[in-house]
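Z., the sequence and structure:
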Amino acid sequence: MTSGEENSDHPQSKIEEIQRRVEEEQFGPWMIVER
């Protein structure tokens, strides 16, 4: 996986991916239950 290319191509999606991981770490299964 080439993270460098992805960062330059889709910076927004990368940020969303990080936010999702942070949310999953904080809320865990609660996110799945609410969705």
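The mean pLDDT is 73. The chain is about 85% helix and 0% strand.

Let me know what you think.
H.
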